[in-house]
Amino acid sequence: MSSEIKNADSFERILDNLAGGFDKKDKIFANEAGAKVFVETMKPKIPYRSKLRNVHGHAEKSHLRDSLIEVKHSNGSVHIGFTSKGEKGYIGRFLNDGWDVKDKNGETHSHVAGLDFWGDTQRDAKGKVGATVAAVLKEEMDKKVRDVQ
Predict the structure, then answer these.
(1) Nearest C-alpha neighbor of 47 from the set 133, 114, 106
(2) Pick from 77, 81, 80, 82: which is nearest to 133 by CA?
(3) CA dihedral 123, 128, 134, 139 (to 10 degrees)
(4) CA 46/CA 63 separation, integer angstroms
(5) Neighbouring residues of 11: CB distance < 8 A, sequence distance ≥ 6
(6) Cβ contacts of 38 within 8 Å, gap of 6 or more
């Protein structure tokens, strides 16, 4: 029985490459893939109006569904939210969380329940997002092994 490792230099390079872990580019790439799955799961849950409205001379620029954005951060994370350019963030918050009805005197009368589409999406997409991120990271790790050989 042999106690030596053939191609030891190649084996050491593979280990060194794997020990380097994932860089920021890899993390952003994987998190973007997960974010896309989250957005695809969320879009059908967001209420949709077929016409854009013109309220007090201020025309809507886009629908709430079309205002979803992905923001990449320097640490490799990707956050999803509504763009301020489309001026829909507060609308999304009202529809998701609900609101208290107040009269002209400021008295609270009732609460309109929110649709909780964000929470529903988190529950529905949890496994899908994790699986997508894991698959992308596995693919990146496989590339690191292949690149050294």
Answers:
(1) 114
(2) 77
(3) -160
(4) 10
(5) 5
(6) 80, 121, 125, 129
Two structure tokens written together for 129: 């997002």
User: How would you write the chain as a 3-class SS string?
Assistant: CCCCCCCHHHHHHHHHHHHCCCCHHHHHHHHHHHHHHHHHHHHHHCCCCCCCCEECCEECCCCCHHHEEEEECCCCCEEEEECCCCCCHHHHHHHHHEEEEECCCCCEEEEEECCCHHHHHHHHHHHHHHHHHHHHHHHHHHHHHHHHC
Each residue's pLDDT, cut to its tens digit, for the chain (149 residues) gives: 455 555 555 556 656 666 567 788 888 888 999 999 999 999 999 888 777 777 666 666 677 888 888 899 888 889 998 887 767 788 888 889 998 999 999 898 899 999 999 999 999 998 899 999 989 988 988 887 776 55
